[in-house]
Amino acid sequence: LLFPVSNLCGKCKPRDTDLLQPSLNFLYCSLHQTTPCSQQRAVAVLLSNVSLLELLQKVLECTWLRSPPSEPAYLSSEDALLCSGWLLVASLLLYQHRYNTEVHQTLSLDLTKVLNAVIFRKKKPILLLAPCLVSIMQFLRAVLRQNFSSSLLVIVGQNTDQGATQPQPSSLQDAALHPLASQQVFSLVISLQNLLVHKDLLLSQTVVACLETLVEYLYVKNQDVALHVASQPWHRFLLFTLLSGGQKSFLQPEVLRLMTLFLRYQSSNIISQKEISQILQEAAEANLAELPEATSRALHLFLCQV
């Protein structure tokens, strides 16, 4: 089925949302819900389809042409198509790298536009756009994990003139973080913190995962910047915010993963021995067999880090 569906997609235009959206979802599910052997073949089939990749390029570019939503409770078919496109491209990046699959057509994206889609959202209702933000952050995680070096993707729009107008330390810092600029990194971190405050479950899980990947990327590039990001005092306020409201337990997946992140990078000003003791106490009193899978996995990673 991959052959006819991918060929059908290649013959469509981005405005054919009723046909494209379920088709891209089918391709996405085919990549994720199959055996490793079949997965490698599926990636090769999709990456050999030049028309499909050209269509995906056009779909992603529609992100920047999108008008602000008029109905805050309604996710349009265009938005749904964008979500499917970004998720499929993120998956193709991941599996192309894993299997070192031959690429017949590259995708080109402006990194500044991708970052701004997450950073600047003042005129857009946050929860309406949560699926779109989740999809774009999944893509961002994929390129960060590959150090912006995927043979499937060409990054354009890098601000090469920025260092010339800044003091020398900032120039060296930006050079180390390339293609990211330090100001983009700090703006992205602030945006991710703000997104967590909304306490949307799907968004929170993706934001924490994106923050983890970002700090890992920074640690390889410039340890001082990574440790600076991980020890921001605002993180502590963020933890208290996440623990407020109905569910005060530390045994929330996003809270545990944040705690693990701060432990990993020795952010003692964010997480103290008191919080560690509270988590261990809650874990000792909990019925571990009844914990959700996401919580069990996050708790396991936290205990290993401790």
From TrEMBL:
One of its GO terms (biological process) is meiosis I. Signal peptide: none annotated. This is MEI1 protein. It comes from Rynchops niger. It comes from the Eukaryota.
